[in-house]
Amino acid sequence: MRAIRGNIIEAKSLGKLDILPNGCIITNDDGTTVETLPALPLGFAGEIDDYKDALVMQSFCDMHSHAPQYPNLGMGYDLQLLDWLAAYTFPIELRFADTEYARKVYKRLARELVDNGTTRVSMFSSPHVDSTLILMEELENAGITGFVGKVNMDTNPNCRLVETTEESKRETLRWLDSCGDFKNIRPMLTPRFTPSCSMELLEWLGKLARERGLYVQSHLSENRVEQALVLSLQPGITHYYQSYDRFGLFGDHTLMAHCVYCDDEELEAIRRNNVYAVHCADSNISIVSGLSPVRKMLDMGIHVVLGSDIAGGTSLSMIRAARNAIYTSKVINVQSEYTTPFLTVAEAYYLATGAGAEYFGSKSGFAKGEKLHAIIVDDTALFGTDKLSVRDRFGRCFYMCDDRQIKAVYGNGKRLK
Amino acid sequence: MRAIRGNIIEAKSLGKLDILPNGCIITNDDGTTVETLPALPLGFAGEIDDYKDALVMQSFCDMHSHAPQYPNLGMGYDLQLLDWLAAYTFPIELRFADTEYARKVYKRLARELVDNGTTRVSMFSSPHVDSTLILMEELENAGITGFVGKVNMDTNPNCRLVETTEESKRETLRWLDSCGDFKNIRPMLTPRFTPSCSMELLEWLGKLARERGLYVQSHLSENRVEQALVLSLQPGITHYYQSYDRFGLFGDHTLMAHCVYCDDEELEAIRRNNVYAVHCADSNISIVSGLSPVRKMLDMGIHVVLGSDIAGGTSLSMIRAARNAIYTSKVINVQSEYTTPFLTVAEAYYLATGAGAEYFGSKSGFAKGEKLHAIIVDDTALFGTDKLSVRDRFGRCFYMCDDRQIKAVYGNGKRLK
Prior knowledge:
Oligomer: homodimer
Low-confidence stretches of chain A: none
Helix content of chain A: 25-40%
Shape of chain A: globular
Structural class of chain A: alpha/beta
Largest interface: A-B, 50 and 49 residues
């Protein structure tokens, strides 16, 4: 048994915030939560991780990112999308043919994810199978839980990253055959996006998803040019989502990044199919895509989770991702003449943590029977002249904290930092 | 003589970026720049501050902020403006009747400004004269250059911060009589904003500005409700700016924060009068004001500088202020269907540094005859797998660096950090 003491802050659902000052989470020896209590039980005999006045918060879920773009983080945002892809993104992804390079990058990436309090992920790798396996290994070794996808892309022969259709299929099978040993990291089918994939490949991937019960992740309606391109590539469809849906790649638990320009029909298809929209606010601004209508999606009952989308997004920090989600919602709030409510900090916290946890089949918060996923935020280095409420300190996290304040991280029941 | 060695990055004007890899700035003993050279002269006999591969950049100018709101940083942004003022802003400003409290806050504030690479400021204090003098003293002691304003506000008797008109005049004179001893911090007249000031007080301040040759700072067209309120308060005017201009408070070097909702006539008045628009992108989103049309102002030839606007803004970091200025401009870029160009990193760098320097009568960059204002950015802790260009490392600063990477700061010729 173990007790984690501190000011416990849970968002059990969207907009709900439960604060237990000087509370205590009791876990059993494998890190499964037994109960959450207002105080340490008298005579508690187990180990105590006493974080005193620090904040005990849910750890983050980063539900969309491109692992091989990590070395480019922070660079190239003066360019428009296509120039940026050519100058920065495709060249760096090509480097992952080299497994030694992959090892170096992914080891550091996994460590920095944990440093930033991210314990669950869904990530794009590159098309390279061996490097993808290294990414999975490094995430698993760092104690992270989640999904990784070898990227499939068989069109646009001018891009040296592209595989032939046969190669893409063969390598996908080789990859799936090789990742049975991971415990917490699982494969997810990952067509890069419709413009990168032939219909033959998409159809084959859809069949594979059905046969093997695999989840799918891709991109949807990120910008208007891409949206128009998709409709021109697959005659007969009226909406981007249909380019996946017709092949069985738009089903339950599919992760669709961005969803900036979905119209009502596309949003309704997302909801109906139990697809998850991954909101990547930072990337949507940085590479000038647009503002995703998150409040509207939430009001419709669509599942929304957050992603850093590095390196279209500029930071691994899900604190920053949550803050940028708030900022995007505030721009929409102003521009709707204050009729569309912005995301509160409590809502952004839930989207960055519990909404992702639920994707993985867990309950949001520190629920009984769930493995512990938590961060300890020690904000004593921040300036304050008075004793602040736990609620104010919690809110302040999303504007003033970074990895320096994240003093400890628990993932899947284990202490990782 | 002193040589500062490193990769020197100057923005001598908007959009211009000069990079001198492994260059060298020579200053004389009082910190005045003598020349900038591509290499250390052979047999250089002075002291050498050798920063090797680090970046030598211009330090920041924070041209609008509220010093007494510093203890509230990061808190309360779920509230709308009026609730936020009542719950957070006014109560904290009231605390500055206590000079001991002021000393504690302003000492820390001055230190953190320097830590973040800000060496020139224009700040609002509170209405309290003695605490305002303490703010000036702490900034001066920290080596910061700039302007501070005792706030004038004599309307809205329900706010306990408000002075009587007589008191406001008397205290302003007492303040001006007491701040003759400061060398680098000067007083600036600071009517809080039109809704806080009677016409009698504004008229008196305008006369004082003329008589004593003082500059003025205030707020302009931050949000639509405020804009409408101003027109109702001063019958006969058609534009917010006229509420200042009619009293001589809208002249050369007046700093007007925000300028979000200025129409063409108001923008033209700003340009004509040589007023400086202070763009506070973070605050304009955080307290849901709107998107300031910075590109349009720049194209018109209006002087634009940047402000953190703490605590409407959420951070002292001008790196973040510059990044948020880019983000705001990118939203405008998307929404204008890519017809209004976004701010490049080089442009944002200039606005956050040299544009402010020019306000103070200096040249942007490391010009001969100017006191050195510089930061040293050591980005070696950031991840990178290859040797990056100085330009890419420079760009990355605005997305990935914070006070940790700012290893040294020079202000007004002296090393401050």
